[in-house]
Design brief:
The protein is α/β, with parallel strands linked by helices. The chain is built from 7 helices and 17 strands.
């Protein structure tokens, strides 16, 4: 795979690898590339280089079994058919969903994941998202690295706590897609900002504009402020509170609504805050067979709302998907 990397000498290879792991910048899906006089380390985005580090592009070998290769380290048996083929990696943390019948084997599974993925320091069982703050219910099953980590995404870095905030690495491409639609000078509202991946990506694109970011989770807001400073983003205004309490003022040109489970009840509020001709990036979990009917119901429910694009971001189950609806206000 042709990808971005950092070329270092053999004497610097281990220290550079550890530093990139610490900052969450190493691409764990690719093998290091060994050369005659050095090593090329795959990275996920632009990296602030130290002395002796050379940014480059190279052809890396993919770890096609990284997320599933841990199975080979476990004792044989039909029970392995229930193991998931993949899991989420957030920096140095692995989050894996396990069926209840595997819980008594979870520590061995976690240990195998650590052995198969040298850049990880902790493995957590992920029992899904719940609660007022919509965070994952996690159980440590291997490692001792704590819950705080950092991730890199298209040249941006984000600090977060996997137990106190929500971040999905699977939406990185989606965030890039939304940021690419942002125009300089836009006034943008992120109604459910979390640690800031949408807000900061959009703010970087909105030169001369502003992003107003809201979240009810105080831990997320703290990381949002830290991440804005970390990425030298100064045009993000951070607010702790419910998006329903946002007061009307100058209308927003673009509104981001990434709350797939419960975002529907906020659509009316978003419409009241949107400028004529502005856009809403709305995400919703819904049945694939019912997406057309859902679009029609939204357009009928809100005067002036028009859905101009529908796209499934990812499948949620065999019958359901997470959809992106691009909505505008005609009047």
């Amino acid at each position: 795979m042709y990808a971005r990397g950092i070329r270092v000498s053999l004497s610097q290879a281990e220290s550079a690898r550890r530093e990139l792991i610490r900052t969450g910048a190493i691409d764990t899906s690719l093998f290091l590339l060994r050369e005659e006089k050095g090593v090329v380390i795959p990275v996920t985005g632009l990296v602030a280089c130290r002395e002796g580090w050379e940014p480059c592009f190279a052809v890396f070998r993919e770890k096609r079994s990284v997320r599933g290769g841990y199975r080979e380290l476990l004792e044989p048996g039909d029970w392995k058919m229930s193991l998931p083929g993949s899991f989420d990696v957030l920096g140095t943390k692995a989050l894996i969903k396990l069926q209840p019948e595997l819980h008594d084997r979870q520590n061995g599974i976690g240990d195998a994941i650590l052995k198969a993925n040298g850049s990880l320091d902790s493995v957590f069982r992920d029992d899904g998202v719940s609660g007022e703050y919509r965070i994952r219910k996690l159980t440590l099953i291997a490692g001792t690295g704590g819950t705080e980590t950092s991730v890199s995404e298209y040249g941006l870095k984000f600090r977060l706590d996997v137990a106190k905030t929500f971040y999905s690495p699977r939406l990185a491409v989606e965030r890039k897609r939304v940021a690419s639609a942002v125009l300089p000078g836009e006034r943008i509202l992120d109604m459910f900002a979390g640690v800031g991946p949408f807000s900061i990506s959009a703010a970087r694109a909105a030169a001369g504009g502003t992003v107003t970011a809201f979240d009810i989770n105080p831990y997320a807001l703290s990381y949002l402020k830290e991440n804005a400073a970390l990425n030298r983003i100064v045009n993000v205004e951070c607010h702790l509170g419910d998006s329903m309490a946002i007061e009307q003022g100058v209308p927003f040109d673009r509104i981001i609504m990434n709350l797939p489970q419960d975002g529907g009840r906020f659509v009316g509020k978003a419409m009241s805050l949107l400028a004529n001709g502005g856009f809403i990036h709305y995400y919703e979990r819904t049945e694939q067979a019912g997406i057309a009917a859902r679009v029609s119901s939204l357009e009928e429910a809100f005067d002036g709302l028009r859905v101009v694009d529908v796209r499934m971001v990812k499948s949620y189950s065999p019958a359901e998907g997470i959809y992106h609806l691009l909505m505008t206000r005609d009047r």
